[in-house]
Every structure is written in structure tokens, then in C-alpha cells.
TrEMBL record:
Belongs to the TRAFAC class myosin-kinesin ATPase superfamily. Kinesin family. The lineage of its organism: Eukaryota, Fungi, Dikarya, Basidiomycota, Agaricomycotina. It holds the Pfam family Kinesin. It comes from Pisolithus microcarpus 441. SUPFAM superfamilies: P-loop containing nucleoside triphosphate hydrolases (SSF52540). This is Kinesin motor domain-containing protein.
Amino acid sequence: MSRLPRRLQTTHYQSSSPEPIPPPIPSITAVFSKGNDENSENLMPSRTMNKRKLDDQDLDAEALDQPRKLPALGSLNSTRPLAVSRTALNEPTVTTTIVSTSVGPASKPPSRPPSRLTRRDPPRLGATTKPRSTRATSAPPKPSGPPTRPTMSRIPSGPGVLACDMDAERAKSTKLAADDRALSRQLASAKELDLDKRRALVDAADELERMRMKHQREIVDFEVEAAKRAREAREREEELKVVKQDLGTARETIACLKSTVAQQSGVQATLNAQVAALQAENSELRAQLDDLSSAVSKGALEYADAQRKIEQLENEAREAEMVRRKLHNMVQELKGNIRVFCRVRPVLPHDLVPPVVAGLRRLGSSADDQERSAVADLAFPDKEDHREIAVSSTSLNAMGQERKESYSFTFDRVFEPEATQSDVYEEISLLAQSCVDGYNVCIFAYGQTGSGKSFTMEGGSTEATVGMIPRAVDDVFRAAEALRNKGWEYKIEGQFLEIYNETINDLLGKGEFDKKKHEIKHEKQGGTVTTRVTDVNVLPLSTPREVASLLRLANSRRTVAATLMNERSSRSHSVFTLRVSGYNAHTGTRCEGCLNLVDLAGSERLNASGAAGDKDRLRETQNINRSLSALGDVIAALGEKSVEKASEKHVPYRNSKLTYLLQNSLSGNSKTLMILNLSPLAAHLGESLTSLRFATKVNNTTIGTARKQIRGSG
């Protein structure tokens, strides 16, 4: 904080005369202080103030060069003090101490303390000094004492009095001149001192302005700091309020917790009692556990023994099942019958949409009723051997009454809709080994359109859905590789044919159908008959992967079309032939086997297939039904031949390209298996019954015992 300067005390110059001192003139400090109080808010900048001070100094310097007019001689008591200059009124108060000096050799230091700074008064003449007129005076001096009347004794003579007056005037003039010089010197000194004081006053004013500005800045800083402190105080108050609220909440929480702790203490005491009881019970249970552990260990040993016995029995059961199958196959081969498997496909999602259940939905029945009504009533009563299927149907008699009929069919094996591809192939896997051993094997799928023939034979894209053809091919290659250690070397070749509208097409050729005429040749070599087809590509096969690519190529070229029964119906019979030729270098024995895998076209009525309005579809359906009818005629002729035991009975193999191509497989020189595929839908029940009756006829047909095609080294 800046401080205001102390008020200066000016020194009054004492005159040589003992005249009384006039009243003091107001000090510059007082005037400046008053001016500062009145004009504290309107102070001029320090640069302007300095300029005005310098102007006042120039005026004072000019005044020094002018002759001074002295006051009239006489009493000086009425002399008024000098007025304060304009510059002094506008300047700030400064503190200055002046040491007074007296003129003459007999001057002494002042006995008074320094007084306030004022303009110096002119020297006063003593009371004893007689006033006399001088040139510089404007009026004759007045006598200081009371007037005296001259007496006769005091009256000098005329010249003497004049001379005396002249000497006195001279002395007085000399003294006045000396006083004037002394006063001039004192005035010059006072002027110079006054200039120094003015300069000091200007510096003090600048310093005061700086201090005032600093003081204002400090005040602003203090105000900012005070506002900041006030804001912080308010924030502290808010925080204090929040803390008080939190404290109140905490106290309430503590009170609640105390009550909770009190409750929990009681609960803990109860739990401790329960724990003690449980520990006692646990001790008893541990004792029981030890007893049970020993019993379990004993039981585990007994279980391991039982498990080994179960595995042994399961192995024996599997071996017994294999023996049973071999014996059954042997019995069937000895009988010479065509083996028949029946497979019912599962219900697919698209089976429950029009046109299958369109009529049912129009009746307003529920979804469950619609599904039950859409599925045929098929039962599988033989849960042990899986050889029987029962079909129930409902029809109206001539009187319009509902009549329910049931039919039962028995085959070599019946597969329910839940059966997998692996389950089906497990029953026919021995036929692949027979092909490697030198037998002719024929497996053909029969059934109406959409019953799952192509899926059974070819399968899907995943490992679990692979069909009979890829699985049989894999087993043939596996069996051939296993016999390599015994000296057998096998050559495997494949061909893929299609019979479309009684025309044979090579599916492995260049795709130029109907340009080459393929003929079927049955060649006798010794005691065996070999079937050949002219101008077809027979490709050598070394791995099952090559067979898979060959099947994909053939399927892409096979003729399919959409019918009312199936969106992608096979409109032709496909025959995949795998020829296996083996030679044993150790024994010089040769064998030739042939595996025919046939996917027959779907059997369906003309009105059910919707082919009546399409000439191409009509022709296809007629040829398919004609070839399947020829197959039925062949089966019927073979059955009559076996019953009558007449070797001269004619079998019409040439009525169809299909039956003529399969002549070897149907005439007794082959192990033949027919897979009957059935649809589970009630709408197809009529076709399913027809297929079941045909399969029963086939299963009852005896074609003779298959023979190995083995030739010696000679």
C-alpha cells in the first residue's frame, strides 16, 4: 500500500529587525492536498503535468531577469503573502525540508524547526532604522516614531544640515544597494531552490501517480482475490451443505446398519447353532460316506466286470448278426430269389403345401389335423427283424359307406423313415465284396416319382447323406486294396448310361445324344455271359474321387423335368456299371465282377403326372411306364418259370432296352437286390400299394443261384 507523504514544514526567514512575523501563508502541501482531494478522480496524466511544470519553470526564469519592484518604505506589516501558483495547485504534495541561511557574516542557524514551504517574504527594516527616500522608492518614507517639534537648540545651520542629510542618504543608499544585492542573491538562490523543489515535486508527483496506479492495480487484484475467495467460500458452503446432507444420510445408514447388525447377530447365533448341528450331522454323514465309498469301490469293480461282459456279449451279438446275415444271404442265394428292401422316406417340409394338402386346407381343418391327414397310415409291426410293413387305407364302397382296409407286406428288410443312408448300406455292403470276388451284382431302385430313389442311390453332398453308389465304390476299392497283399491286382473301369425314350445315351461321352446308336451285346465266354454296349466310353478308375467326379458329370447331363408329382423328376433310367477285373500272380487265377447300380425312372399314372397336355412329357411317361411294365412281365415270366420248372418258358427280355440290358442280372447269373422306395403321403397311397404289390412279386421270383466268373491260368 502506498502512503501519502508527510506534510512539509517550511522555514520562515527571519529578518534582521525585531518586527513581528506576519501570519503564515498557507503551505503548498495543504494547497496540494486540497487540490488532490478535490481532483483525485480527474488527475492529469504525468506527461501533461510535467509539461505544465516546465512551462511554469520557464516563466519563473524569465521573472528573474526582470527588475524587481520593491514595496514602498515604511511599515511592512500589511504586506500580503504571495499567492500560490497555478502549477502548485495542480501538483501533488511532496515532503521537502529546507535549511534556511541568513545573509551576512554573522548569520546563525535557525533556532526554529523547518516550516512549511512558502514564498519568501522580503526583508523587513528594523524599527531603529530611519526611513529615507531613495530612487527606487515610489513614496517618501514615513517616520516610524512620533513626530517631534524642533527646538531652537537643535536646529543646525543650513549647509551643515544638508551635508548631514546627504551623508545619511548616501549611507542609506549604499546600505539599500547592498541589501538589494543581497536580496537579489537570496532571490536567485531561492528561485534555484524553488526550481529544484519543483523538479522534486514533479518527480514526487510521478512517483505518487505510479504508486496510485500500483495501488489501484493492487485494489483490483485484491477485489479479484476477494471475489475468488468469496466464490470459494460459497463453494465451500455448498460443499459443506452436501457434506452435511451426506453426513445425515450416513448417520441414517449407520442407524439402519446398526439395527441390521443387531438382527444379523441374532441370525448369526441361530446359524451358529445350526452349524454346530450340521457339523455333527456331517460327521455322521462322513462315516456313512466312508462306508458308501468302500461299497462304491466294490461296485465299480463289479461294474467294470459287467461292462467287459457286456462288450463281449455285444461283440458276440454283432458276430452272430453277421453270421445270421451271411446265412440269410446264403439261403437267399441258394433259393435264387431276388432280394427286396423296402424304404419309406421321411415327410419333408414341402410335402405339407399345395397341391398335396390344398384340398384339406379348404375344408378348414387345423394344422395338426391337416398334417395327420396328409401322411399315409403306415405301420411297422416287426420291431425285431424289421421285415414287415402294414398299410391302412380308407375308401368308399358302392353304397357310399366308408370302408377301411389294411394290407401287410413282408420283405427281406424294411427301413422306417428314421433310417439313415448308413443303415441302408450296412445291409448291402456284402454285395460290394461279392463284386470283387467275381460275382455279377445288380442293385436297382424302384418306386414312384418323388419317393427318394435318386437320394438313396446317389445321396447328398455331406458325408452322412452319401448314397449307395459312392459307398459301394469306396468298398470295392477298399476290398481290392486289402487283397493286394494276397497277390491280387485289380483293374477297375466304369461307364454310365441313360435309357431315355427307349434310346441309350452315353452320359460320359461328349454329350452328343441321339447321334450314335448304341447296341446291347451279350457275349458268351466259356460258361459265363458278359453284357457289353457298343460305342460307349469306358473310363479306367484308380481312386474313389475319380468316380465322384464322374458321377457329377453324368448327373449334370441326365434328363430331368418337372411333373405334378415331383419338381425335378428323373425322366430316364440311369445305369452305372463298375467292372472289376482281378489277376493273382501267385496262382494265375483271373476273375471278373460287375456291379450294376440302376436308378429307375419314377412310375406314375398319366393323370397323376400331368403329362396329358404335353406331348414330350406324355411320350416320356408312356416310355417309362412301358419299360417298367416290361420289367414286370419279365419278373412274372421268371416266376411262372420257377413254379412250372419249365426251362423252355419264354422270358420277354427284348420288350424293353431296360430289361434287355439287365438280362444277365435277372436271369440267374447275378446277385440282384431291389430297393423299393415309398412316399409317406396319403395322396400317393395308391401308387405306394401298386409298388408294394410289384415288389412282393419280385421278392417271390426265383432266378437261380449266382456263379463266380473265375478262369484258371490255362
